[in-house]
């Protein structure tokens, strides 16, 4: 893979132009923007300090890809930051002949679909044309991993259209993995008419608490609140249990509908939006408390940027400037060493490299929502 770094003549020019655009996309400077930029720099400095000698973060492709995305979305690249170049080389050494990008030395941690999704997004964010063939193979790997794509599964199966971790043949799909894969496919340019999107919509309907469009039995007697759960059998990670909608999955569900070309005015998307309006928060992950809090922040920022609305008007009619609210909250939560981490260890959120990456990505979407 070493020769890939030499294919950069056109890339250098493109990168210079894109960075100028990224800088001008930010809102007019003010005290809060300056504070946010300072917090971002402290977070970047932290990631630089904790990068492993092999170029990874935490010796794991998913964490490495998120850290790279955090750096790349905040103005760093292979040319101006050796940490990015080193991290990209780590990912390139994990590219498999089947198109996946993952470490298969420990089957329990391979999580091929999850790691491929995040890794291909990191490669894409470099805007390095040398990686296009790798990304194209990764796209096919993810598309083929969708339930119903190549396995003969019928649309009547609850798992149809979903994507799971991909670790074993008995793997079950879930909204989190599907949403990550759809984001990777959308960002890297899979056409809007590709079959993956229509299949995904069927799965998305089955993880939404909306009986009008969810054909699963659990939804008929569920809360019917428009929010989303984790899996199509009604499984939820919320401590309130089965069929309970919660924040991070509802943002993932709405974002995924948009990526699947569902109109924002569609009743399914509007039901999710109304759930978000009635549960607006930057202090907790609604329905989950502090669990998966930083995953929630980064998903919230992505979704609201994609949705394209400056203010979230809650169900009491109060407008919320989500960018301002989220920036202020994330600045408050930063630790003196520049890192972020969660005292609630669920979902690995006690790991500063992972959580700092989530946060820097969220701040990038707050500062540059249109980039």
TrEMBL record:
CDD domains: ISOPREN_C2_like. InterPro entries: Terpenoid_cyclase/PrenylTrfase. It comes from the Bacteria. The keyword Isomerase applies. Keywords: Isomerase, Signal. Residues 1-27 form the signal peptide. The keyword Isomerase applies. Transmembrane segments: none annotated. This is Squalene cyclase. The lineage of its organism: Bacteria, Bacillati, Armatimonadota, Chthonomonadia, Chthonomonadales.
């Amino acid at each position: 893979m070493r020769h890939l770094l030499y294919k950069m003549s056109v890339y250098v020019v493109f990168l210079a132009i894109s960075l100028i655009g990224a800088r001008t996309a930010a809102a007019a400077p003010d005290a809060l923007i300056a504070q946010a930029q300072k917090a971002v720099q402290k977070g970047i400095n932290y990631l630089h300090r904790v990068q492993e000698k092999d170029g990874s973060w935490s010796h794991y492709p998913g964490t490495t890809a998120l850290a790279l995305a955090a750096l790349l979305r905040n103005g760093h690249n292979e040319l101006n930051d050796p940490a990015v170049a080193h991290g990209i080389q780590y990912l390139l050494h994990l590219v498999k002949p089947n198109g996946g990008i993952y470490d298969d030395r420990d089957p329990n941690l391979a999580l091929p679909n999850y790691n491929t999704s995040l890794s291909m997004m990191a490669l894409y964010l470099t805007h390095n044309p040398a990686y296009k063939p790798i990304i194209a193979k990764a796209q096919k790997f993810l598309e083929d991993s969708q339930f119903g794509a190549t396995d003969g599964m019928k649309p009547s199966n609850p798992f149809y259209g979903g994507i799971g971790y991909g670790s074993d043949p008995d793997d079950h799909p879930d909204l989190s993995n599907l949403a990550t894969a759809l984001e990777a496919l959308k960002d890297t340019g899979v056409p809007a008419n590709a079959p993956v999107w229509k299949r995904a919509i069927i799965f998305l309907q089955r993880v939404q608490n909306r009986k009008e469009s969810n054909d699963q039995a659990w939804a008929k007697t569920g809360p019917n609140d428009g929010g989303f759960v984790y899996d199509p059998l009604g499984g939820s990670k919320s401590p309130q249990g089965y069929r309970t909608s919660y924040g991070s999955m509802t943002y993932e569900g709405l974002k995924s509908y948009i990526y699947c070309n569902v109109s924002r005015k569609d009743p399914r998307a509007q039901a999710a939006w109304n759930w978000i309006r009635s549960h607006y928060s930057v202090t907790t992950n609604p329905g989950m408390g502090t669990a998966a809090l930083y995953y929630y922040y980064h998903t919230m920022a992505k979704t609201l940027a994609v949705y394209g609305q400056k203010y979230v008007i809650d169900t009491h009619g109060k407008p919320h400037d989500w960018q301002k609210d989220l920036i202020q909250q994330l600045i408050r939560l930063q630790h003196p060493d520049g890192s972020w981490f969660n005292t609630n260890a669920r979902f690995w959120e006690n790991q500063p490299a992972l959580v700092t990456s989530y946060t820097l990505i969220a701040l990038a979407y707050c500062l540059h929502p249109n980039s």
